[in-house]
């Protein structure tokens, strides 16, 4: 088995002025990380769209063998480091006479005493079984090693031929993808220990994803959930989601392919983006003029994810968790277009937000499928209200050029 070489190209990043950011400590303890909340902005009369030529994605040449492609994301050198971490961890436990991190004493019947190390091939087999178990669900893990009998018909899983159940359980309990001596449990300001443990492999997967898949123009940013129901302080509960419990990540993707992502952390280590206000406004009792506003950490994530991609011009699509005129101005200044659904309190002018109030009061509002467009005063962001079952708000900064060879009809942008 030969190891795959890891490309050495360095991903380009944007050149951003240090004054474009502020640290978490400058934002105070009540920084909102939910939907944006800004006062209504002043409406204007003209909209100057940000024009972007459509650019398709590109996939670099891939290995012909599926195993070689898999090993780009899980190279032998990485697996061998995991084996070293695992053997070191087991040796540490046995030396201290315990079987786990909770210092449970070793007994004569403890399985850890049966540990005889693992090879690279065994580690790959174990990893393959883990992937198989995630795809082929059964009532319990043990059931995958049970053979069908008369009166008890069940699937015959061939993984039992490659590794006995007891050995799989033993490896699963003690396998480590990180060096336990380098996890900083005393200071988790930058990244909690759970994510510190996954960070090296996560970074490698992202690096290879960005190397193989060169993104085109259109990108989407959203929150995602990595299923996890074990014991961890970093799990998040998002009700009414397909995966309600797990680790939340912020991801930027194209055509369903994840390019980059950031961990969602309760006390976020990510910097908040500072945006210049289109019209300076008084603040506080003394009426001090405020010329800038800082985005929430959630909104700033969009900016940081774009900055992690190869340097190019992108059209970013978001939902109302992120969208606001201030964010879209920041993206436009950085050379990106943006389109997204928006919530009423993200800074949308009262001329549009009043439509929701009129509908609730039973007064005349938009009829079904009617559209109303109101640009903002600075002409950089437009606002669209569309009557569906309820009024839906959109924020675009773009004038879209149709992709080449597209069969979809062009929908003209409504004029004021």
UniProtKB/TrEMBL annotation:
Domain called PiggyBac transposable element-derived protein: residue spans: 65-349
Leader peptide range in chain numbering: none
Pfam families in alphabetical order: DDE_Tnp_1_7
Superkingdom of origin organism: Eukaryota
InterPro entries: PGBD
Polar residues bias spans: 1-12
Disordered as annotated region, ranges: 1-45
Protein known as: PiggyBac transposable element-derived protein domain-containing protein
